[in-house]
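Below is just one:
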Amino acid sequence: MLKKLLKYDMKANLFPLGLTYIILLGYGVFNRLLAVLVKSDYRAAFSFVFSSVGFFFAVLAAVVITIIFIILRFYRNMMGNEGYLSHTLPVTPFQHMMSKTISGVLWLFIMSAVIYLSVWIWGGSIPSKIGFYFDFTGLIRSIIAGMEPVRAVTEAVNLLVSPLLLVVTFYFSICLGHLVPKMRVFGAILFYIAIALVKAALTTTLGIMLIMMKLDYSTMTDVTLIMNLVVNVGCLIGFFWGSCLIMKHRLNLE
């Protein structure tokens, strides 16, 4: 059943996000052609500046649109009018959350791949990190350069956990927001901000404690990476199961 859920969740966003990514790739091709056709120095400089600014906003738009549709898919399908049908299916809240989380993360990876490709088409080189990119190329270079195995594994796991946590935090905030009568959307936004602030405060507090321990730089770096991973994994598990429990016991559809 999870496979069928995932299939429908991916198909639900296929048209709007697919169209967005095609436009972004087309913009990359356009900029590449513009760079080839414009020969004079001053025109080339102006075209580069304007294409760079335009491409930045195009990438930003792609990121924002992707996140909006990931959120809308969960909101409409779980908490909106579609929820009356979704929650009557022989599917557990855990399966719903798994499907929504996997599909959301897949769209983030697809978005990152499209941005990489469009930048490569435009400029002929792939950046190591842009927007929501997961810096696997930088990680590989670090490992080749002699990064310690523990640090390399910790960074790799952190890079995989980060998009999962981002998506699940959106879903958990929506679930919490639906516990607030007549202020569901506003409540979800407030809960998301509150979660971000609490997590930042916790990370900062732990960081200060590490500084007070007066560790050497290498040890401090390793401990900080592990600490961030533990915090992120803890939040991921807590938010995921919190969303499942709310959908199971405190469901409050529109």
Observations:
- Confidence is low (pLDDT under 50) at residues 126-136.
- The longest helix spans residues 41-79.
- The two ends are 25 Å apart (CA to CA).
- The chain has nine helices and no strands.
